[in-house]
C-alpha cells in the first residue's frame, strides 16, 4: 500500500471549487492500493491535516469538524512527507505521492509545484515551469504564437502601464480586436474575472473587474465558435481522450454557467465532424508538448461556426474534478473510469519522479 496525500483548498479565488474537486477525488481513490491522507489549506493560508469525511470539504465545513491538526509538508527530503504538530510533539507521516487538487493561484501556478519538488515527493501534474507558463495566459499565448498554433488575436497589459495610458490603450484595443472582445485576468481560472465587452464603456468596466484578480490582463478577439475541450493524459507519450463540447447556459462559459446554472449542456463526443475531433486531439497534444506538460491537462479550443477552423483557447493543468467537470467525463468516455484515472495519475507521478 502506498501513502497518498490530497491537498485541497488554497489561498485562491478558486478555493471552494478545489474543495469540491478534492472531495470527489478522495471518494474515488482506489482504497485497496492507497492509504489516503488529506491536508486542507485555508483561505488565510493555514495548513491542517484533516481526518474526517470528504463530504465536509465543500463550503469549508471540514474546519468545524474537530478532525484537524496543524501540519505541513516537510521540505527536508530526509522526512519525505508530512509533519503533524500534536500536543506531544511532531508526528511524521511518510508520503509516497501527492495530488495537489488546488486550482488557481498558489496551487496551479507553479508555486506549490516548486515546494513539492523541493520536498522530493512525487506529485500529480505538470512541473513548476510548465504550470507557471500555462497559468499565465499572456505567456501561453506568446508560446502558441511562436509555434504557429492558431489562436484569437490578443493583447496584454500590466496594471501600471494601463494606468499611465488608459485612454490610448482602450482605443487601440478596440481598433485592433474589434467588438465584442473578451477581457481576462492573465492568472486566474474558473472564468473568474472574465468579461465580454461590447463597447468602449463596457471594456473599461471589464478592465477594472479583471485587475481585481491580477496585475496583468489579457484581451482577446471574439471567436464565434463551438467551445470544445480535450483531456490529455501522460508524460513523454501523452494520449488525447474523447473531445467534449460545452453549450453554456449564459452568453459565455463564466463561473455561474460552470458551477451554478444547471442549464449548461455538455456533449461527449463533441457535435463536430469526426475529422475535426481528430484535429482537436492533434492540436491538444501539440500544445501539451509545447508547454512541457506532464501527467494531466485539459486543453480548450473553439471550432469556428463559419468554416470549422480549430482555434486554441487555453490549457488547464489542474482541471476540475467536480461531478460536472469535463476532464474525468472525457476520460471515462475513452474507457478510463474515475477510480482508474486517479490510479493512473498517481502512477504517472511516480513514473516521472523515477526518471
Descriptive account of the structure:
- The structure is a single chain.
- The protein is of the alpha+beta class and about 350 residues long.
- It has helices spanning about 15-30, 110-120, 130-135, 135-145, 160-165, 165-175, 200-210, 255-260, 275-290, 325-335, 340-355, and strands spanning about 1-10, 35-40, 45-50, 70-75, 80-85, 90-95, 95-100, 155-160, 180-185, 195, 215-220, 225-235, 240-245, 265, 295-305, 310-315.
- A seven-stranded mixed beta sheet has the order 6-5-4-3-2-1-7. Strands 14-13-12-15-16 form a five-stranded antiparallel beta sheet. A four-stranded antiparallel beta sheet has the order 8-11-9-10, sandwiched between helices.
- It is globular.
- The mean pLDDT is about 95.
Provide a brief overview of the structure.
The chain is α+β, with helices and mostly antiparallel strands and 355 residues long. It has eleven helices and 16 strands. Strands 6-5-4-3-2-1-7 form a seven-stranded mixed sheet.
CATH homologous superfamily caption of the largest domain: ATP-grasp fold, B domain
At CATH level 2, the architecture of the largest domain is 2-Layer Sandwich
What would the principal axes of the Cα set say about the shape? globular
Low-confidence stretches: none
Q: Strands of the largest sheet, in order across it?
A: 6-5-4-3-2-1-7
Average pLDDT taken over every residue: 93
Instruction: Report, as a whole number of angstroms, the end-to-end distance.
Output: 22 Å
Write the CATH fold name of the largest domain: D-amino Acid Aminotransferase, Chain A, domain 1
Number of separate domains: 3
Q: What is the count of helical runs? A: 11
**SSE ordering:** EHEEEEEEHHHEHHEEHEEEHEHEEHH
Indicate the percent of residues in helices.
Answer: 25-40%
Indicate the CATH class of the largest domain: Alpha Beta
Q: What's the Cα radius of gyration?
A: 20 Å
